[in-house]
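Blinded run. Sample ID left blank on purpose so nobody reads anything into the name before looking at the predicted structure. Input follows.
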Amino acid sequence: MADISDTRFLAFLLFDIIAITIAVWWISRKLKSKLQEVEDRKMRKRNRN
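Blinded prediction complete.
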């Protein structure tokens, strides 16, 4: 079991939390971008017809 007063453990924990936060932000940004791309493609297809 990890000791909460261990500074090395807390440093790794903080690093992991920051890394996970950045990863979730990056993935959500990519997903929003792809969804916008699909919507734009649908609009162009509708405008052509």
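Unblinding after everyone has recorded impressions. Residues 12 and 18 are 10 Å apart (CA to CA).
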